[in-house]
């Protein structure tokens, strides 16, 4: 399916913003222009749902979550950033492993299985993109992923 990524992304963010129970603010910095991507919308929805629910799960009361994407050549880079508890640098590499969760005791109380990011990586790679995380303990976490752009709003094939 070919979709306007900004519209697709906004709809998912809206759904979380309307239903969230936490006191966490959402901020969006999205390009003016439309960019179309060819994606499996169910799978990409699952990926973005997990990234946003992780950001909410690990955000403090009064926290902020930032949503953005930038475009370079034929790629877009999507980012979701929180100012939550972060991930110790020794563990960052492992969070894409199946069933891996940073802190067992803390993780147990948060629910979940530790599969979300493993599935996200599989799905993003199946779309020809990549996904990675930058995090600093106590400062916050940013999840990035890339997607190929099909066409921009001027109808130029990228
Ligand atoms: P599931 O997604 O299956 O419900 P989960 O959220 O624990 O469970 P993942 O989404 O794969 O699993 O995340 C793996 C681990 O990475 C989490 O348990 C958490 O320890 C850490 N993590 C992921 N996102 C963040 C974040 N935004 N801030 C802090 N830690 C995170
Ligand atoms: Mg998760």
UniProtKB/TrEMBL annotation:
Subcellular location: Cell membrane
All residue ranges annotated as the Histidine kinase domain in the record: 1-151
Top-rank taxon: Bacteria
Stated name of the protein: histidine kinase
């Amino acid at each position: 399916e070919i979709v306007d990524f900004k519209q697709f992304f906004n709809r998912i963010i809206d759904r979380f913003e309307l239903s969230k129970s936490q006191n966490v603010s959402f901020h969006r910095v999205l390009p003016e222009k439309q960019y179309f991507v060819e994606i499996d919308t169910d799978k990409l929805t699952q990926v973005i749902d997990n990234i946003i629910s992780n950001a909410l799960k690990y955000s403090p009361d009064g926290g902020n979550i930032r949503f953005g994407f930038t475009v370079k050549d034929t790629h877009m880079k999507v980012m979701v950033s929180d100012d939550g508890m972060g991930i110790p640098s020794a563990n960052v590499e492992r969070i894409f492993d199946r069933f891996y969760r940073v802190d067992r005791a803390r993780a147990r109380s948060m629910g979940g299985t530790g599969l979300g990011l493993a599935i996200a990586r599989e799905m993003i790679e199946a779309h020809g993109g990549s996904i990675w995380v930058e995090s600093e303990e106590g400062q916050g976490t940013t999840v990035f992923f890339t997607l190929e752009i099909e066409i921009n709003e001027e109808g130029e094939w990228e």
